[in-house]
Amino acid sequence: MTSIAHPVTNAxxxxxxxxxxxxxxxxxxxxxxxxxxxxxxxxxxxxxxEDGAGALLLPGFVEGHTHLDKTTWGMDWYRNAVGPxxxxxxxxxxxxxxxxxxxxxxxxxALARAFxxxxxxxxxxxxxxxxxxxxxxxxxxxxxxxxxxxxxDMQIVAFPxxxxxxxxxxxxxxxRALSAGADVLGALDPALxxxxxxxxxxxxxxxxxxxxxxxxxxxxEPGEIGAFTLxxxxxxxxxxxxxxxxxxxxxxxxxxxxxxxxxALLTRLADLRVALLTTAPPSVPVPPLKPCIEHGVxxxxxxxxxxxxxxxxxxxxxxxxxxxxGMRYGLRRDDDLAIAFDCVxxxxxxxxxxxxxxxxxxxxxxxxxxxxDTIAHAIVARPQRLLxxxxxxxxxxxxxxxxxxxxxxxxx
Length: 412
Prior knowledge:
Elements: E1 2-3, E2 12-18, E3 24-30, E4 33-38, E5 48-59, E6 61-66, H1 86-100, H2 104-117, E7 120-128, H3 136-147, E8 153-159, H4 170-180, E9 184-188, H5 197-211, E10 215-219, H6 223-240, E11 246-250, H7 259-271, E12 275-278, H8 289-295, E13 299-301, H9 318-328, H10 334-342, H11 346-352, E14 367-370, H12 375-381, E15 385-390, E16 393-397, E17 400-401, E18 410-411
Parallel strand pairs: 2-5, 6-7, 7-8, 8-9, 9-10, 10-11, 11-12, 12-13
Antiparallel strand pairs: 1-4, 2-3, 3-4, 5-14, 5-18, 14-15, 15-16, 16-17
């Protein structure tokens, strides 16, 4: 048994759970952190107690890339008749949100709560910064973050969905968004959307450096043009000392390059500690999972949009996303499916920079209990979450949210 000293406040003891390695243990929680893990931990008088009944113990899940502000979660079905191009989706979404009065605050809160009930305790969301809407969508998501502060650790990316250079004033809005509370600067397809990758990247890195913020860029650009843009981005990471502070989301180009060219870029990505995010889509090239691991590149997972004007797909269940990652990459062995789970847990926490994460003493107490034999079983069966603990508080039981006043279990 290992332990760490904590004053006994907000204490909780969870007994008889199985770690992923099969060991039966108890978990003691105090002050929002794991205080001890081991068999037969003492039950102090007055400490809330939960009987795990042999359930599988998992760390809280991490959503590495979503768009809470766009979702129609819980609304009437959106009938999607949008055109096939990326610009069609961008223009359609801007028009619909303006005409419908879509409320980013209410909708982001609804979806964030659904993520939490399904076991996600850390989340990175991209929020549209637009010259028509200004900071309105950001203000709604900031309110959601404040409402769930203490149970859902949320990073907000200020994202120029229409690009940076084509709509004058976008750079000023991004600057204001970072000052207003956004954590990360977003960017989008410097060559195909902004039509000037050098200027686009220069402005992006200038804003990020001015605010000392990391960057998370959507890079949908295919093949050679994507590789060219990625090379320019890596040049700037090296020149400006931003190693470990940049994520490239999607990076479709890495799934369509000849192996020699691809591996050269993977080597640079690893050396500069630039992480990759994939949603593991079935219909476009994706960064190669095992070559990324072999080269030391961090590759993690996320949903992208969940039920919005872009897509009817997506779910706040990160076990489902792990399953889709497994299917996209042909993962069938139990040890390979554990890699898919890492993409929505430990690796995603590392890629996003979430700290104090994991199932170890001293980590923030973010725990999920499920009725499953192994991680692989949990991924493919996606059972109901029996218990979700976030920052030491019980936030969901049997798939349903728990009132804030009753987070501490049953005293015995």
